[in-house]
Design a protein that fits this description.
about 625 residues; alpha+beta; Ribosomal Protein S5, domain 2; 4 domains; eight-stranded mixed β-sheet; five-stranded mixed β-sheet; 19 helices; about 20% strand
């Protein structure tokens, strides 16, 4: 039998290694940014085209490389960071494995321009599929300019697995933010398709957080500080009142490196216990510094998971520090019974003279007097004194005056009653109901179970319907019909509404602005950190605008459109998910019947817009099986 084991060619080995290091364009962005930081750059410019699929370019003013180093950086396991195994436990830099550039070169076309500060000329190298196809001496600024083009050009199967541009851009921005937040002393710029998304000058930690997530974040941050022998903790936590349903603004940095640690995240949740609603998540930006020999950052290829030697100690320190910050900055409203508010004087009244209050008394006022010209329905009421009353009664008989006046006062009580009643009736007619009453009903007998399911009997049998998913299907088909078939109607807002967002969220809204306008939304302006809405679809209310936009942004970033045939379909799905009745909503008998009728009038009543089963049928045979009965029983 001949030998069957053989060494793999270098280009094949590099492509296999690229599967671990380069998962998507965001992986390339992370590696190139970290290389620029290790080179001591103070200005880093990231340029993207087509979410990094066509171009990922990083320009820095770091130390640069010599001609020899420029060639060696694309070889496997070539690194300047470590020389022996012990160096792995004393790392102060980002890249150290020596696999990133070799892996990227194996599945992309790279053009590298670099120059040392001590050299007059620089080096340009072009690589395609791990092979150097061109090298020359050029004139270039000090630093490194790396352009990665046509990612996965030689592995079409991997390229087909990439998500849409919106999803890949979100992953890139996530990596960019993680690097920019911890290195606030470096100037970062991000451009995507010739549009500037971020321009972050050198600043302090708080200013960088506000620059990334918008000025609204400034008032929500509470500082946190703790210094011990095993841990130095700095950073900010977000006030409990601003906790969100989704996990967005949660960042752990250890020794200037972003990490994911469910165990330490639990420490934050433990400190916020009882301060935020169930289902909400606290926000935080925590910068941890620990001795390098107490942490292992080489347990995962992406280096986002680490192993601590004293994890339990760190847990208790972080939990206590967060609790201390919450108490120190009065994050929770409390009652102080030791103070008397009557003794507290506002600062504006500090130097004002004290004046004696004056009391005015009408000596002619008589509460028992029956003769008066006082009319409770007259806006120009005046109290008539005895002298003026006797004077005015000289020309008019007393009895006739009292009779006519009394009769007029009683009649005014009923003025406008009819118009008010009519207005109430008309208002009741215009009040929107959850489900419109149908002329013909498919079902009459329904029963709601746990405010979640509806049990109903139709001609086809008995059905158990999930009310939330059923309403999603009904709304989805209605929205889709209004958007695509009918002309979308819009209602103009009396006062334009301004909503603040981060730059990343505004970037998402800009990309779907035309589709939103076709659904009925109208925008006055869309700036870097806010949008101004002047019109909304008639199917939503003014109070739901912010909720709808937040869900749209989240769905768009998470890739809900992957299962949609168009952006309009994605918007219809997102609106249906946001506005559908929630589990736990009590429905009247009429609302239950109308929901079931609307559901079975849909084109695809068995599945929700997200391909989830809406109902299940309960046949007589299935009921007999539950009680172990045969058909003769």
């Amino acid at each position: 039998m001949s030998d069957i084991i053989q060494l793999l060619p270098d280009h094949v080995a590099n492509q296999i290694a690229a599967g671990e290091v380069v998962q998507r364009p965001a992986s390339v962005v992370k590696e190139l940014l970290e290389n620029a930081i290790d080179a001591g750059a103070q200005h880093i410019h990231l340029i993207l085209k087509d979410a990094g699929k066509t171009l990922i370019q990083v320009i820095d003013d770091g130390s640069g490389m010599s001609e020899t180093d420029a060639r060696l950086c694309f070889e496997r396991h070539a690194t300047s960071k470590i020389k022996e195994a012990e160096d792995l436990f004393n790392l102060n830099t980002k890249g150290f494995r020596g696999e990133a550039m070799a892996s990227i070169a194996a599945i992309a076309q790279i053009e590298l321009k670099t120059k040392l500060a001590t050299s007059e000329l620089g080096t340009c190298i072009q690589i395609e599929g791990s092979k150097i196809i061109h090298q020359e001496i050029i004139s270039t600024p000090v630093g490194t300019n790396t352009a990665v083009k046509n990612l996965f050009f030689n592995i079409p199967a991997r390229r087909n697995f990439l998500k849409s541009d919106a999803v890949e851009t979100r992953h890139i921005i996530d990596e960019f933010q993680r690097v920019a937040l911890v290195h606030h002393n470096i100037h970062f710029v991000l451009n995507h398709n010739n549009s500037e998304i971020f321009n972050l000058p050198s600043s302090n930690a708080k200013q960088r957080i506000v620059a990334v997530f918008g000025h609204k974040t400034n008032e929500r941050l509470m500082p946190i500080h703790e210094d011990t022998d095993v841990l130095s903790l700095e950073g900010f936590i977000i006030k409990p009142a601003y906790a969100k349903k989704k996990r967005g603004e949660q960042f752990f940095f250890v020794n200037d490196r972003f990490i994911k640690s469910p165990y330490l995240h639990h420490a934050i949740n433990a400190a916020f216990e009882g301060l935020i609603e169930r289902g909400n998540h606290p926000g935080y930006f925590l910068y941890l510094t620990v001795p390098t020999n107490t942490i292992d950052i080489n347990i995962h290829p992406t280096k986002t998971e680490v192993k601590f030697d004293n994890e339990k100690v760190l847990y208790e320190i972080i939990r206590a520090a967060v609790k201390h910050s919450l108490g120190q900055f009065n994050a929770v409203d409390s009652l102080d019974f030791s103070k008397d508010k009557n003794l507290e004087t506002p600062y504006s009244y500090k130097n004002k003279p004290i004046s004696e209050p004056k009391i005015e008394v009408d000596p002619n006022f008589n509460p028992f007097k029956t003769e008066s010209n006082f009319n409770p329905f007259d806006t120009n009421n005046t109290v008539t004194t005895k002298a003026t009353t006797s004077k005015s009664n000289t020309s008019i008989p007393k009895n006739s005056f009292q009779k006519e006046k009394s009769q007029g006062d009683w009649e005014t009580l009923y003025n406008g009653i009819e118009s008010i009643a009519n207005a109430e009736i008309e208002q009741d007619k215009l009040t929107p109901k959850l489900f419109e009453t149908k002329e013909t009903q498919l079902v009459k007998d329904t029963f709601q179970i746990q405010n979640k399911y509806i049990l109903c009997t139709l001609n086809k049998g008995t059905f158990l319907v999930h009310q939330h998913l059923a309403h999603q299907r009904v709304l989805y088909e209605n929205f889709l019909e209004n958007i695509t078939v009918k002309e979308a109607s819009s209602q103009q807002l009396l006062f334009p509404i301004r909503i603040d967002y981060s730059k990343q969220e505004v970037f998402v809204l800009k990309n779907i602005k035309e589709e939103l306008e076709s659904t009925g939304f109208l925008f006055d302006e869309i700036q870097d950190e806010y949008v101004v809405v002047t019109g909304i679809p008639t199917t939503i209310s003014e109070s739901q605008i912010s909720m709808v936009f937040e869900q749209l942004i989240e769905d768009f970033q998470e890739g809900i459109e992957e299962n949609s045939f168009s952006q309009l379909d994605m918007i219809a799905k997102s609106l249906a998910k946001t506005l559908a009745i929630k589990t736990g909503t009590k429905l009247s008998d009429v609302e239950q019947e109308n929901l079931i009728t609307d559901l079975f009038n849909c084109k695809e009543a068995n599945l929700s817009p997200f391909r989830k089963k809406i109902y299940t049928s309960i046949t007589n045979k299935k009921l007999d099986t539950l009680f172990n009965l045969d058909k003769h029983a």
